[in-house]
Amino acid sequence: MLQSSPFPLKQSELNQYFHTVTEYLQVNSIRMHISDRQLAALTNLLNDWSAARIIYYSSQNRNKAVYNLSLAMDAMQNALKAIYSELSTSVLSELDLDTLHLHNFCAPQESDQASLSKA
Predict the structure, then answer these.
(1) Long-range contacts for 99-105 (Cβ within 8 Å, ≥24 apart)?
(2) What whole-number distance in Å separates Cα of residue 73 and Cα of residue 49?
(3) At what angle do helices 62-86 and 11-27 cross, to 10 degrees?
């Protein structure tokens, strides 16, 4: 079944995904042309997400904790979507697509396919 987004559905998998892709984007930021401003914002959002998860699992006020976790998740996903939308498919490797879960979202363009078939 194809997913409509690169983000895992289970929270534990989503947490690992957020941490993995944030580190991966930081390491590959120059090659991928990701700005320092975007990386700083992403790191801050990851810290917010991590803090919200800790509060969620230790909170007596579950409704507020769920709300805060949901806000942190939405912010993190929106930041990643913004970064992903600016990535040039020409700089993405198979490892990039695998790590970021972007195979279904960065298919080669028809012009890319045509040039590949001529080679």
Answers:
(1) 99/20, 99/21, 99/24, 100/6, 100/21, 100/24, 101/6, 101/7, 101/8, 101/17, 102/6, 104/2, 104/3, 104/6, 105/6
(2) 6
(3) 40
pLDDT in tens, 55-101: 998 878 788 899 999 999 999 999 999 999 999 988 999 999 999 99
Report residue 4 CA to chain centroid gap: 14
Number of domains observed in the structure of the chain = 1
Cα–chain center distance at 36: 16
> Does residue 15 form part of some domain?
no
pTM of structure: 0.83
Structural domain range at position 70: 44-86
Any domain includes 50: yes
pLDDT digits (tens, 9 = 90+) for 2-49: 457 899 999 889 999 999 999 999 999 999 999 999 999 999 999 999
- In Å, the largest CA–CA distance within the chain is 63
